[in-house]
Amino acid sequence: MMEGLPFAFALLLPSWAVATSWRGAGYRSRPRCGVATRPCGKNTVRGAAALSVALRASILNKEDGGVALQKKKELGDEAQVPHDVEQQKLATQKIAASLRGRILDMYVQFLSEDGSAVDYKALRNSLEFRDYQVVAQQLRDVQPQLLNRTERIAFFLNVYNALIIHGLAILDSPPSNLLQRLLFYAKNAYVIGGIEYSLNDIEHGVLRGNKPGPVPFSGKPFKSGDPRLWTSITESPDARIHFALNCGAKSCPPVRCFNADNLDYALEGAAQSFVTDEENVRLDQDRQGFVYLSSIFKWYRVDFCPENDTSDRALLSTIISYIDAESRDPDAKRLRAQLVELVESGQNVRCKFLPYNWSLNSA
Ligand SMILES: *[C@@H]1O[C@H](CO)[C@@H](O)[C@H](O)[C@H]1NC(C)=O
Ligand SMILES: *[C@@H]1O[C@H](CO)[C@@H](O)[C@H](O)[C@H]1NC(C)=O
Ligand SMILES: *[C@@H]1O[C@H](CO)[C@@H](O)[C@H](O)[C@H]1NC(C)=O
Question: What is the distance, to the nearest Å, from the Cα of residue 297 to the centroid of all Cα atoms in its chain?
Fold first, then answer.
């Protein structure tokens, strides 16, 4: 979620400067083990042992849990592993579900009805937040690579949105400039299955299929051999995640909680409601062939143009595909018709990008 050159400077800063700025950014004390920022040694070691079992397991288990059970028969003396795997998968699903429950409890209390604003101050000292943090500690023990694709996407969307809120709730002052934001997304992390995942790792590494972030000169978050690659959605990642991730700013899509059982439906709804919001997609008044779009479409253009055609026309075609042709909403219908007309007219189509409002989404 970044804009332009200043980031190049940020990346070139020596690490002591980064560390200093980060301390300045508001974290007073080191958070408890396993929650936000760095893992503690003990966790990491315990996690690593569990991980090696799980990694071995996930080789048997690339597609879904069913494959592991099938292999169990073939392997005979390896039978112990798939059994453990099945147990670990169930345990992971259980933690994911209870995390979702605690997240919903927080959202019901401290999120505006449409998900666009969070009451961070009230959240910070609430019972709901405390309960959530207790469950969030259990993330150390989950093995998300054992979840199927849908479950994994829902899980990481929920963890990302909750981690943003967690990080913003415990900061004395929210990030207020580019560098602080950069650090926030890079440094806020949970230990998940024994390994640290920052917000950037979750977004670019897992949900975008290990693509470089939009910051100039950034590389793939997970290098070859990184065990977190096992959790990455590398096969045709779903670009609609961009309408489901809330980065804590005014211009972000609303905060929602996701569930594997209806993920596709929820993402469809999130996409349509994002692109039919005037703040994110609008035609210019004079119909000169300009379409104004949220900067999200600029930063993640490659995600929205999967066929290597990154033209404005291709981008708009994708946006059109997010609006249900049968929609009963007259505004959505009209927007879709106008965009279709524009794209099919042969007229010169040009996208322009709206400034992103980085003000905190606080209530
Ligand atoms: C993934 O798991 C969910 C339930 O957690 C299930 O509804 C869905 O059918 C599974 N998907 C696949 C492809 O196995
Ligand atoms: C897209 O481009 C990449 C690299 O430029 C290439 O490897 C890939 O085959 C292309 N895919 C399509 C569908 O053209
Ligand atoms: C961004 O949102 C805040 C809060 O709603 C508002 O006060 C401010 O004017 C907005 N900034 C811009 C540039 O639109």
Answer: 16
